[in-house]
Amino acid sequence: MFCNQCEQTKGGKGCDVTGICGKDPDVQSLQETLLYGLKGMAAYAHHARRLGKVDEAVDAFVEEALFATVTNVNFDMPTLLEMVLECGKQNLRVMEMLDEAHVEHYGQPQPREITIGTRPQPGILITGHDMLDLEHLLQQVEGTDVLVYTHGEMIPAFMYPKLANHPNLAGHFGGAWQLQKREFEAFGGAILATTNCILHPKPSYADRFFTTRVTAVPGATRLKTDDFSAVIKRAKELGNLPARDFGKIPVGFHHSVILGAAPAILEAVKKGEVTHFFVIGGCDGAEPGRNYYTDYAKNAPQSSFILTLGCGKYRIMGHDYGTLLGLPRLLDMGQCNNAYGAIQVAVGLAKALGCGVNDLPLNITLSWFEQKAVAVLLTLLYLGVKGIKVGPAAPAFITPNVFKILQEAYDLKLIGQDGKADVLADCAAK
After folding, report:
1. What is the CA 377 to chain-centroid distance, rounded?
2. Count of C-beta atoms within a 10 Å radius of residue 108
3. Do residues 298 and 369 both lie within one domain?
4. How far apart are the C-alpha atoms of 146 and 231, rounded to whole Å?
5. What is the largest CA-CA distance in the chain?
6. Quick one: 129 and 194 in the same domain?
7. Mean pLDDT over residues 139-163, rounded?
8. Residue 354 belongs to a domain
9. Does 287 share its domain with 185?
10. How does residue 11 score in pLDDT terms, banded at 50, 70 and 90?
11. What is the CATH number of the domain that holds 71?
12. Is the pLDDT of residue 286 over 90?
C-alpha cells in the first residue's frame, strides 16, 4: 500500500507498510476502491444535476462514504466492503437519473445511421460526455454555416431526436480518447472538450482548443460559462473543413429500443435462433492487451448479440458483424453511464424467461481505465452479477486479498490472453 494522508507517514513521505494507525494494505485497498467509485459516481451525478436531477439520499451517501475514508475512522474490512457495495447501489440510482434526464430533455431514443467524416463548411468537434453543452452549442450555431461533429463518447447524442434532428449536427469524427492528439490535429476546425478524457493539446491545435468549466488543460482556452461564441468565432476563422466520407455506422440502441424488440428476441431464444448475449464495453486505452476485446467480439457466434457502451466500443466497431432478426448484431447502447441500460436489458430478459440474470446465456467482459468504470463495476457487483471479466489488468489499488474476496463472492476474473478461445469457452459454459 501507499498512504500519505496524515503527518505521521513513514519518513514524512508516505507509508508503504502498516503505519502507526494500524491501517493495513487491504483496508487501504477498500478505502481507495470506495473513493474511486465515488469519483466515478460524482461524474454521472454532475451531468444529472445539470439537467435538474438530484437525489438527497445519493448526496448523503457521498458525505458518509468520504467520512469513512478519513484518518482513523474506519479500518474494518466488512464495514468497508458494505460501503463499497452501497456505492454500487447509489451509482445505479445516479445512472438511472441521468438516463431519465437525457430522455426527458432530448426525446425517446431511436437507432439511426450516422455519417463519419466532415463537410466543406466551418466545423466544431465536441468531445467528452456533456449533452447539455452540445445542446447549448447547437442553439448558438443555429442559422449559421458552422457544423458540429461529435467525438468519442458524444456519439450517443445521435440517438436523441432533439439533438440528432438539429440541422447543424452533421456527423461524427474520430474514435476513442487516446487517439485524440492525432484526430484533433487532423480535424482542422475548432474543438470543444466538455468533460474528462482529454489530453494535453499539441501546439499545432492548442489555439483552437476550448474546454468548459472544471475541464482545463494547459495551452487551451477555458470557458467558464455556456457562452460558446469564442469557439464559433474560431471555427469561422479557420474556414471550411475538407470533404471527408469514412462511411456510416449504426448507433442509438438504447435499452428502450432493445426491450421494444424483446418479444421477437425472446421467441428467437426459445427457438435457438439467438444463443448468446455479450456485453463488451467500458473504457478504452492504449495498451496492446486491449486487442483482446476486438478478438473476443469478432469471434462471437453469428447467433449472438453484442451490446457495447462507453469508449470501449471503438475497440470492436471496425468490423462487420452482420444482422440478426433484422437488427445489427453489434448494438451500441451509448455512453459508459448507459451501463444502466445494459442492466435493464438483462433484468428484462431474465424476467421474461423466468430465470435470474446469472442464469442467462450472457457474458459481461469489461475494459476499465478510470473511476467511472470502477463505479459501474461496483453497481454490477451490488446487483449480484457473477462471472464478470475485467481487464486488461487488475486495478493497482486492488490487493490480492481484496481481489480474492471478490472472486469468491462474485466469480470476478481477469480477461485471458486469447479472446477467440475465451469467447468460445464462454459460449460452451452457458
Report:
1. 11
2. 12
3. yes
4. 10
5. 67
6. yes
7. 98
8. yes
9. no
10. confident
11. 1.20.1270.20
12. no
